[in-house]
Design brief:
It is a single chain. This protein is an alpha/beta fold. The protein has a single domain, classed as P-loop containing nucleotide triphosphate hydrolases (Rossmann fold), CATH 3.40.50. Helix content is about 45%, strand content about 15%. It contains 10 helices and 8 strands. It has a 5-stranded parallel sheet, sandwiched between helices. α2 packs across α3, α4 runs parallel beside α5 and α6 crosses α7. The C terminus is likely disordered.
Amino acid sequence: MNVILLGPPGSGKGTQARRLAAALGLVQLSTGDMLRARVAAGDEIGRQAKAIMDRGQLVPDDIIIRMIALRMAEFDCRNGVVLDGFPRTVAQARALDRMFEERGLRLDRVVVIEVDEAALVERIAGRFSCATCGAGYHESFNRPRTDGVCDACGGTRFIRRDDDRRETVRARLGAYRNETAPIIPYYQDKGLLRRIDGMAPIEGVARQIAAAIGPAPAEAARPAGRVG
């Protein structure tokens, strides 16, 4: 079974991809993690990607697709994969379709995690952590018991990541709407898309995803080599 999880930044798709992969015996494929591993290994794809990233450019789709294809050919992916963070554009979705068709593979389901953007900004933008031990907190939902003092280590210095600032979160959500959201009707037209409520608790989201995907044997009845 091969599954794509879609969702805006902060929707929890990385967490849900890990849970889903573990539950179904699949392999989670995060293109960001894969690129970093290739660069660290210094293989052909890693060297190409590093040269492009060092110039401040985006790694082109053909390199990403080749990397995914090679990874999916490895033995541990024999039961299928959960793609997390790819595709990001309709062009990438079409390229992924071609790769699946060429290799006799099948895309079984695309699950989009839907969220309320205003609530998501509040959820993400309030996060901060202890600079000493890394303990995480939130301005609204999980403040230290004593203001300015870490519950875990007693530290008094806190930090906030750039990615957790409101303006950064809003910019990333805007990029998702403009670039990635158009993938949703693309997969809807193929009959592969399922929508779930990403504002539910983590366990609730996991249950919705499991129900949306359904049992693998029923999906396996489709002829191999066709996508959609």
